[in-house]
Amino acid sequence: MKSKQSFIYGILLGILGIVLFSSKAVMVKLAYQYRIDALSMLLLRMLFAFPFYIIIAFSYKSENKASLKRKDYLWLVFFGFVGYYMASYFDFVGLTYIKASLERIILFVYPTIVLLFNKLFLKKAINKLQKFAIFITYIGIVITFSSEVTVSGNNTYLGGLFVLLSAITYASYLVGSGWLIPKFGVMRFTAYAMLVSCICVFVHYGLFSRVAILNYPWQVYALGLAIAVFATVIPSFLVSMSIKLINSSNFAIVAGIGPISTIILAVIFLDENLSLLQILGTLVVIFGILLISKSKKG
Asked: Which segments constitute the EamA domain (predicted)?
């Protein structure tokens, strides 16, 4: 009975975490209405998130410390740079060109990229079901994407490319960092990697931006704080707790609500809408990812 309650609790935590993560794209698009650029928006997100991850890092600083080597920290810096800084930057730039709902659909293909990276770099075989799932997923992307190009024009290609780069860099982080996470622990690794990302954003802004960060309306800062707290810090804990309670395979299925929740939020807050063809493409993508999670279970 207790295990069943834990499983239900884990499912609910996972759903809440995914919905909160999905709200990020919608809040970023709302902020862009005030003519803030992608780098400045990313800076605000990291500035507000930075204190939370400092506290987390100090709370877990003594955990497994003796077993860690210098190269482990160097790899952590590298994966923090690739998986959180580069992926976030590409995502925020992509959102300047495409709708929030389309961004979430493209990002959702990262499990297929993980499979491809595992094949290329770790020599892990891709079975027939996984190959079929990858094929199905990209058919769904083509359906959704091509339909959007006819409406929004060539900027959709550019935005889609940046979001795809975000998915690729995040997938490379997942493939490469898997062996590091048990060494540091989930909470500590996440906090350290996010701090690396924050520092990278601060340096990027300091070197290349000529925009005064204090010249925006108060709504931009409120959205930056909301993105940091409700679409970054809180869901990162919720997702970790959910995976612990229901395992990663079941969580992958729960994550299927991500694109759907983004579409619903985008319709409510951004007046975005998808055609029937785009909705069909979205469902095809979700079906493909669910097939991949099913094949991983087996």
From this structure: 9-145, 159-293
